[in-house]
Amino acid sequence: MISRHMTMSKEMNAFLSLFPITNMMVLCLNKSPGKRFYADDKALEKGVLGVSPRMPNGLTGASFSYGDPEFEAGLVDHIPPGNYLWEIPNANPGLREALEKRISFSSMSMYVTYSRVRKEPVAAGPARELTADDITVLPAERFVSAQILAASGESKVFGIIEDGQWVADAWITRMFDRYWSICDLFVKPDRRGCGFGKAVTGACLNYLLQAEQIPVYESDSRDKPALKLAEKLGMRYETSRMVGEGTLLRARKGVPA
Fold first, then answer.
1. CA distances, 64 to each of 9, 103, 207, 248 (Å)
2. Does pTM surpass 0.70?
3. Contact predicate 112/257, CB 8 Å
4. Could you count the other beta carbons within 10 Å of the beta carbon of residue 133?
5. How many percent of the chain have pLDDT more than 70?
6. Rounded distance, CA 50 to CA 144, Å?
7. Residue-wise pLDDT tens digits, 26-78
8. Which of 61, 64, 52 is nearest to 7 (CA)?
9. Other residues' Cβ atoms within 10 Å of the Cβ of residue 232
10. Residue 148 phi/psi, 5° resolution?
C-alpha cells in the first residue's frame, strides 16, 4: 500500500492510500470513474498528476499534488496535447514556472477551498434536490450542464423553484472517494441579496453531511460574498490553488493526440 506520509495534499494522500500501486504509469481507479493518476511507483513521493473526465465546459481537468515541481511538470508529457483546466497548488510555487515550458496559459485565477466536518444541519429554507422535471426550467445555459451532471450519476443539482420559475441552484459533484465539490452556485440577478444563495448551498451541505460525505466548497478569491457565505455556513479554510485554462504544447513521443 502507498505510504500515508507523502508530500501531497491531504485529499490526494487520503485517496491514494486506499489503493495498491503497480509498476504501470497510469493508474485507473474504479472509485473515481474516468479519472486517471499519472505517477512513477518508484518515485511516487515526487508527485502525482490527476486527469479528470471531460467537463460540461468542454475542458479536461488536470490537477497536481505538492511534489517536486520539475518531476510533476514532466508528468504532463504522458498525456495528449490539447486544452485543459489546470489546477496548481499555491503551496508549490515552482510548479507553474516549470509548467510554462510546456503549457501556454490563457487565464489564471486563485481559488480558495473550504470544508466542513461538523454534522449539524444548516438552514436551507425552500431549497431542495431538483428532479429531472425541475431542471427543465433552468436557464438554457445551465440546463444543458445540469442535465449532463445529473446523468453522470456522480452529481446532483439543488435549487429553488417558485411557481414553476427558477430562482437559484448549485451543484454537487463527486471529486473522489467521499469528497464532493459544492460548485457553480448561481442566483437569478433580481433575487440576489435575499438569502437564496445561502439556502441552496446549505441544502447541498446538509445532503452531504447526512450521507457522511465530505463537502468541499471552492470559490474565486476575488468573490468576497462567496467567501463570506462559506464562513456563515460554518466551513473552514483549507487551502488555495491557481486554476486556469491552458494548452499543452507538446507530449512525449508515442502518446496519442
1. 9, 14, 28, 15
2. no
3. no
4. 8
5. 75
6. 26
7. 443 334 445 677 776 666 678 888 887 666 566 788 888 778 899 888 888 88
8. 64
9. 12
10. -60, -45
Here the cell at position 247 is 494548452
3-state SS of the chain is CCCCCCCCCHHHHHHHCCCCCCCCCEEECCCCCCCEEECCCCCHHHCCEEEEEECCCCCEEEEECCCCHHHHHHHHHHCCCEEEEEEEECCCHHHHHHHCCCEEECCCEEEEEEECCCCCCCCCCCCEECCHHHHCCCCHHHHHHHHHHHHHCCEEEEEEEECCEEEEEEEEEEEECCEEEEEEEEECHHHCCCCHHHHHHHHHHHHHHHCCCEEEEEEECCCHHHHHHHHHCCCEEEEEEEEEEEEECCCCCCCCC
Domains of the chain: 10-112+241-248 (3.40.630), 128-234 (3.40.630.30)
Cell, residue 68: 517536486
